[in-house]
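hi! just following up on the protien thing from before. the input was this:
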Amino acid sequence: MKISNNWLKDFIKTDIKTERIGEFLTDIGLEVEGIEKFESVKGSLEGIVVGKVLTCEKHPNADKLNKTTVDVGNGKILNIVCGAPNVAEGQTVPVAVVGTKIYAKDGSFFEIKEAKIRGEVSQGMICAEDELGLSDDHGGIMVLDGEKFEIGKNLANYFELSNDEVFEIGLTPNRTDAMSHYGVARDLNAYLSTNKQNAEFAKVSSEILNNEGSHSFTLEVEDTELTPRYIGAVIENVKVSESPSWLKDRLKAIGLSPINNVVDITNYILHGLGQPLHAFDADKIAEKKVKVGTVAEGTKFTTLDGIERTLNGSEIIIKDGQNNPMCIAGVFGGANSGVSYETKTIFLESAYFNPVAVRKAAKAHGLNTDASFRFERGVDPNITRTALTHAVKLISELAEGKLVGEILEEYPKKIEDSYVIIRFSKIEQILGTKIHREKVKEILKALDIQVLNEIQNGFEVSVPAYRADVTREIDIIEEILRIYGYNKIDAPQKISFTPVKLSANDQDELENSWARTLQSLGFNEVMNNSLTSVKDESDAVKLLNPLSNDLAFMRKSLLEGLLQNAIYNINRKNQDIKFFEFGKIYHKKEKYEERKQLAILVTGREVAENWLQPKSATSFYNLKAYVRVLLEKLAIDYKEVPSSDERFSDALEYVSNSEFLVRIGKVAPQMLKDFDIDQECFYAEIELELAQKLRSENELKFKDIPKFNKIRRDLALLIDKNVQYQDLYQTAKKNKSPYLKNINLFDVYEGKNLPEGKKSYAMSFELLNEEKTLEEKEIATVMDSLIKSFQKEFNAELRS
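and the predicted 3d structure came back as:
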């Protein structure tokens, strides 16, 4: 949200510097992300002086150029080559002297330098209106009135130029009260007034209007639940034209394009006071009757953007006397009822619409307007009439309109303020410090929160309706804190807590244990949004009222989010990535499914580049090793099976008790291409609920460190190429000997000196008897048993 400093000063006058105001706004929760300079004319005509053309003759070396001499004051005569067809001797003209910057519409510029043009020296530039940013006219140079413009004077002295500083505020969605210049000023005043800063706040109230004659318009609100308050005014003899410079500059400063004086006034009130308004061409309203309600499902309606939309029957619709839709209330106007330059009479609307109904309509039609953004969060119902009267006054001043007849209004049931009880003990508990009661009272008053009654341990208060987000005691405590000042709350030097014993049935303990393990291995944890867009909607869970098309579905996998994290880092030259995330995924099959997973993504180098170790890219096997470290904490048995998951080019699944537990794979090239990633990525996902279930079924046991040493024996096996290490591993695990403790593959060889279709695996076996030292006979028995199993199952041969 953009807030103009000049506009802000209309409501709060202070001599505090702009940068300091930005700090104060950030302190009270209106985080200022930046302050930009705004100039109504880029460059503010700096370096542009008034000159007089003394001589003008054809350029000797170019047919379309002229060679001029120009007096720019103080006896200084410049030689300037000019290509404009209308330049002539005796003209008073704007001149850009050497060193002046000439700006284009996109903000780029070039600097005027002394140069030779076709052999003739040019010491400046005679400017056209578009080159100065004064208009779009490029028919020739700008010719000034010699009687009004003095030679040598700065051209800026003759124009009302607007310079401003604009705050870029990262406003949280709950702060509808601050979605306007008046709202920001009101909040700033609450802070300044309670912190003894010099400021003068101008509270707005309804303008006193004079109406003439009468009108025959009528108003009907069909459902006061959908439209609790609606006000309309009829204004005649309106002259729709271009807005004055001051109004256009206000809108341009916050990034809006001026349209015409009537529309600009409604935008000015919207961003000034926070109340959306809408102006209808009154001559296009059938039977001079405005109805507010709904229409039948399937009704066609063309909006201002020229798109024909099919209404679903739940939208609040502004209709004429024949039930023709004129506007989707609070969202978007109609193409056939808006104000144009031919409009003479307008019907001006100011209302409070049901926030939920507006939000549903906006999301259903994929529309997000400044009006809907405010209505769907809840505007101030008590400023509705004030905003209308201010707009009517501006229309009378800038468009010569005359208010006729009485203002129409439907407001059968007043929207009441919220009633809340706050306790001093709760304030002190939350803040961790004690604030004097009178200070609390002062802050509440500054926030327009009225103290109705003082009770033994607190206050009974009334919260104004414009604070739709403040409805509970904790909300008011937060308000007190942000105005009192977060920086005034000292952090405790000592924090006391009681450790809680976690059991094997606690999944949080498992997650924390895994997180610590991964962090110790160099991983960083990430958190991504559960809402996303999907390519395949077949089993996706879709939101009924999504925030946008990009956030319309619940995520089906954690992979996409991690790939987005990866490319974000890769683009910033951080290419060695180890990420993990705990999160839920969602599917709609026979019923809705929700599962929690641990996802791991690695890409880039396994070890940071250094002089001691060679460069080594991370691999599938590195990721597999990380997963094994985690699974060791479960103390369970599992087996590997191939996976056909389309997200991977190569993948394995770990299965335990016939249930899928882990999937590990190399991310498919097409998926990497979709995210513009050009380096290999490896991904693993672990089903947390199943991991916790398997873990809780295994009772954790502790035992002493063995008193006797392990014995290692190695085997070099010649096997067929299609035999996998996992097959050998599972066969060895089935060995009945209690002495076999560990199995490992330490070498693989394929190449010369081996029969065709064969490969060699070198495996180590660790044996241990915890009661005594193993005898060679016992060791030989185990190894012979292993060799026979390998020969029987895989036709393996021993290599010498």
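The longest strand covers residues 577-588.
The two ends are 77 Å apart (CA to CA).
cheers
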